[in-house]
Amino acid sequence: MRVGVLTGGGDCPGLNAAIRAVVRKGVQVFGYEFVGFRAGWRGPLEGDTVALDVQAVRGILPRGGTILGSSRTNPIKVEGGVERIKDNLAGLGVDALIAIGGEDTLGVARELHGSGVNVVGVPKTIDNDLNATDYTFGFDTAVNIGMEAVDRLHTTAESHHRALICEVMGRHVGWIALHVGMAAGANVILIPERPFDIDKVIEYVESRFKTRYAPIIVVSEGAHPIDGQMELRTGERDAFGHVRLGGIGQQLADEIEKRTGKEARAAVLGHIQRGGTPTAFDRVLATRFGLQAIDAVRDGDYGKMVALKGTDIIRVGLDEATKELKAVPLERYAESEVFFG
Amino acid sequence: MRVGVLTGGGDCPGLNAAIRAVVRKGVQVFGYEFVGFRAGWRGPLEGDTVALDVQAVRGILPRGGTILGSSRTNPIKVEGGVERIKDNLAGLGVDALIAIGGEDTLGVARELHGSGVNVVGVPKTIDNDLNATDYTFGFDTAVNIGMEAVDRLHTTAESHHRALICEVMGRHVGWIALHVGMAAGANVILIPERPFDIDKVIEYVESRFKTRYAPIIVVSEGAHPIDGQMELRTGERDAFGHVRLGGIGQQLADEIEKRTGKEARAAVLGHIQRGGTPTAFDRVLATRFGLQAIDAVRDGDYGKMVALKGTDIIRVGLDEATKELKAVPLERYAESEVFFG
Amino acid sequence: MRVGVLTGGGDCPGLNAAIRAVVRKGVQVFGYEFVGFRAGWRGPLEGDTVALDVQAVRGILPRGGTILGSSRTNPIKVEGGVERIKDNLAGLGVDALIAIGGEDTLGVARELHGSGVNVVGVPKTIDNDLNATDYTFGFDTAVNIGMEAVDRLHTTAESHHRALICEVMGRHVGWIALHVGMAAGANVILIPERPFDIDKVIEYVESRFKTRYAPIIVVSEGAHPIDGQMELRTGERDAFGHVRLGGIGQQLADEIEKRTGKEARAAVLGHIQRGGTPTAFDRVLATRFGLQAIDAVRDGDYGKMVALKGTDIIRVGLDEATKELKAVPLERYAESEVFFG
Amino acid sequence: MRVGVLTGGGDCPGLNAAIRAVVRKGVQVFGYEFVGFRAGWRGPLEGDTVALDVQAVRGILPRGGTILGSSRTNPIKVEGGVERIKDNLAGLGVDALIAIGGEDTLGVARELHGSGVNVVGVPKTIDNDLNATDYTFGFDTAVNIGMEAVDRLHTTAESHHRALICEVMGRHVGWIALHVGMAAGANVILIPERPFDIDKVIEYVESRFKTRYAPIIVVSEGAHPIDGQMELRTGERDAFGHVRLGGIGQQLADEIEKRTGKEARAAVLGHIQRGGTPTAFDRVLATRFGLQAIDAVRDGDYGKMVALKGTDIIRVGLDEATKELKAVPLERYAESEVFFG
């Protein structure tokens, strides 16, 4: 049995832990061989491989990033892409493929499975926005990094009278902002799921300034005000069409200064949240995902994605897994509002 | 409505986060008053109270320990203890009591509820050994501290040829050792649930020494060899009848040196794992437990303990909650054995 | 003997450690009394005091911020300010004043000493830009925070092909950027002392992209290109006339994208670097500064600032201490250039 | 020019940073070739080499341990050892040797230099006990790890009434204990340089128990009571003649329990302090040491060791460097006594 492994999409702490678990159990328990594909779907598309054995995965457990590299290449959108992948897999003698990635990567996995490729998916999204699993690895690490940053802002906010804004990742969903804000005691949390009322934000800020503490706001990069409330700077998309990191945090700081006459400062964590060594939670989750994925291969249980339900690792259909985004429910957001102001 | 709050048993990161959530929601949303009881059950037993309002809980979210103090006082074992507590609660006008603690504390809570006291329990055990909840706060912090320690041992083990042992908390269950060992890539994990075969341990150690890496063993303080295999030093209990922290780790180091002729060193984390700032996971869990506990009071839903199931905070009967210890299932332990040697 | 203590200027980890040392030794060894002044020079100017005894400094050693609060109030610029301070000190029976702060705070201390006030200075600047001392506390903490952030960026840079920029503090001097960049292995470091050549920066970036790694740039907030090389966005000053945090990092990212056609992302650490618990280096340094400051008071050795020379804590004249900014010498910067590209 | 590099003695965070700096500057600026020797002096003794070029040192800056491995092999004690080294160096065409290590390693370097080998030394001792340099890398990391551990003990000590002991490294000198204790606010610090009075220690412990806080003691592994005061357990040496890690901490805990009737617990950090990623201070120091060492080679300035004086990296004679141990001066210890009890 020869198994291919690839990692697609954005960086995420825990990818190496998952790869290591797949290979260690595959080789030592099942006696499989492995083929590493480089740079996400570009690997099988172009037949770009790398040796993947027990030696290759030694010492990678605590390391961020992925030894396989990643990319956002989508073979579905490439003329004849699916056929080329099937040909390359056949040529390399690859019997099954483990695809570790987010919504896009798993969507491709689903399509390939539909075309007869033996695929097992492992979910990965720092944003925690996949519906079929309680958590994905990388999220806990991102939240802890954000929390430590906001912990540090707190002492400055206490000593001075300055509003401090921390912009965290989350273009479409606010899970990171919600957890960072709850864990670190933010005075306001702003998430994409609920357009914010800038008047209400200013009110919280003003009331906080009346105590001896200064306000701290945690904001998702994808959060935005109720339509028409704030004049947003345009040109905040970069040359690649992505929303600019750092946009909303700084604009919020400007607005607060203008309206309150108090200084406001923004910190933008950006990619700091996606890199570096994973937390214990993410390492254990990624390891257990990897073990379950190679078990699925052994069972011939293809077209599935591994997932966390409570404390169990289960398998769900790739169809179900990629159906819809898991947004923050408004009642979860409401829990955090108790601590606002 | 006047609500009493106490924290009992051993120290645990997240206690302050739970207290803060109870008080913030109780005061700001429900308009309740609070009475803090000092030092666990000794507080209501002796009527020893401390002011507990929004000001008192400011800034405590990131802090380890408990602003209320703790103790292992068991009022059930005190002559007339239950009656004294009921009298003191009545005298102080306390309508309901939130007891935050482990098995012992919650056992007392169950008894008191049986005697007509309005009690809600919040589970707390660093060992993660309560059956009715997926996780308890404090556990994730303890695991991360252990993981960081073992991460550091790895580089020394790589540079030298020395067996390194890390003894972690866990007198009766091995959850901390299992998660630390999986997260940090231990070569052997030893837990109380399964007496270890010292010959097998030596075999792993010897085979590891043959690579350029040296072996790292994570061992629960409560782990022990198969009966008769090792001559254990006696006198490892202290004046208080507790098993001595540091016992098994050092004895294992001695045995490895004797049998392999290679140096072995033990690090003993001890109380380092129970103190200090909680991780994001523990802060969010403790906060959500606190919010749910005060909701239970508002609902008059007494005799319950709050618990985590998947991503939901639910309530379970105190009876059910304290029934039996949650040990590490052998199939979970077997998962980790893939990485041994 | 009654001694006043104040902290002025920006936040800086270690302020509390210094206050604690002053008070502990002053009370326990010399039997002095203390008066805490609130909010920097505003405290003695307005007679705004706070109790400062052994109980008040308990537990503050590991905490960021300052229990005394701070401000940028300059009494020299206030009509009759110096006289008001002298009157208030006399009225409160304060015999000597310990002023903990940066260039501005110590400049006021020097003036007051000239007017006959018994002042001892303790240097504090996160930027490490005071000439009379090898290091100031807060700097080591800021550098470690920056280093950890860049460590995290490295793994993302390795997995993807994206230029990553980390903007750190340092409006006038580049010490933080230099040390963060050297400690974390930046591919380019840009500091205010040496206007950068954007063509050279692009060259480094391009050459790095040719390896399998992506470039990481550490840039001081006050760094700027050689005149005329880049069209800098205006309006980067806020309502208070301060240069906007986040300005140069984002502009550099834009320029790199435009010129190389590769994605670039900026993280802006901002105030995260000034808050939170100090490192061991900063806690020991601040403690030793505090001990030396109260020794100077005991010796009646006023008009002095405590300073670090090698491993010794010495005293220098406040005159000398505030004479000129300690910039990064170009030969120190050149050391780091070995690692560029 | 072909330069050999080796690392000897115990593990120490920063070794890789020093190796990287030597190689990067040597190759990129001076055009040298390098030969890595494996496992300390065993490498040149047995001609055991490893490739050492720019590729080999990529990514090692943040990593603990040493890519070259280490050992305690002393070629002086090996029959004909010096001659064999000279022959091997000649055979490999090695013109100069950079030896990174502690007292033993540098002592060998001095002897070899006396025999005509071109040697430059780089000091490395986690214990900070070399007289000729203000600091050595590894020390700051060890102190920070110890400080974080004691920070965590503090919250437990506050919540309960239990004496907590933290045993840190330092067989002959107490620098680590002194700095950990000052940085983390220990109530007692015990170092090898001054035999402790157990009656005085018990007095501090008792007086601390009278407050609402519990005592925390930081003790060097090499600290010991005044002769005859405590009956020390024998057999605390291991099979290799080393003093057992964990000895004095646990014995102190036993003594405190016996004398005070209060519980006491010991944590033993052991090797955790020598491993893992270095702090910024250690990375910058190790890097600057490496740069200076290769400059010394370029200058043909052999028989020297690089050293830190204030903020400068200088060169001193290997003779001077290895003359005597740098113990903690009693006046530095006295500084810390202000905070005892």
Key attributes of the depicted protein:
four-stranded parallel beta sheet; seven-stranded mixed beta sheet; cytoplasm (chains A, B, C, D); metal-binding (chains A, B, C, D); Rossmann fold; diphosphate-fructose-6-phosphate 1-phosphotransferase activity (chains A, B, C, D); homotetramer; kinase (chains A, B, C, D); 38% helix; elongated; 341 residues; AMP binding (chains A, B, C, D)
Characterization of this structure:
Chains A, B, C, D: Its EC number is 2.7.1.90. Chains A, B, C, D: Substrate binds at residues 125-127, 162, 169-171, 221, 265, 271-274. Chains A, B, C, D: The record marks 124 as: Important for catalytic activity. Chains A, B, C, D: Residues 2-297 form the Phosphofructokinase domain. Chains A, B, C, D: One of its GO terms (cellular component) is 6-phosphofructokinase complex. Four copies of one chain form a homotetramer. In chain A, the strands form two sheets. In chain A, strands 3-2-1-4-5-10-11 form a seven-stranded mixed β-sheet, sandwiched between helices. Chain A has a four-stranded parallel β-sheet with strand order 7-8-6-9, sandwiched between helices. In chain A, helix 1 crosses helix 9 (280-299) and helix 5 crosses helix 6 (175-184). The first copy, chain A, is α/β, with parallel strands linked by helices and 341 residues long. Chain A is elongated. The longest helix of chain A is centred in the middle third of the chain and has 21 residues, at 139-159. Chain A has helices at residues 15-28, 42-46, 81-91, 103-114, 139-159, 175-184, 198-209, 247-260, 280-299, 318-321, 330-337, and strands spanning 2-7, 33-37, 49-51, 96-101, 119-123, 163-168, 188-190, 216-220, 264-268, 304-309, 312-317. The first copy, chain A, has two domains: 2-137 and 278-321, Rossmann fold; 140-273, Phosphofructokinase domain (Rossmann fold, 3-Layer(aba) Sandwich). Chain A is built from eleven helices and eleven strands. The mean pLDDT of chain A is 91. The C-D interface holds C 21, 24-25, 28-29, 58-59, 61-62, 134-135, 140, 143-144, 146-147, 151, 154, 158, 179-180, 182-185, 213, 277, 279-281, 283-284, 287-288, 291, 309-311, 335, 338-339 and D 21, 24-25, 28-29, 58-59, 61-62, 134-135, 140, 143-144, 146-147, 151, 154, 158, 179-180, 182-185, 213, 277, 279-281, 283-284, 287-288, 291, 309-311, 335, 338-339.
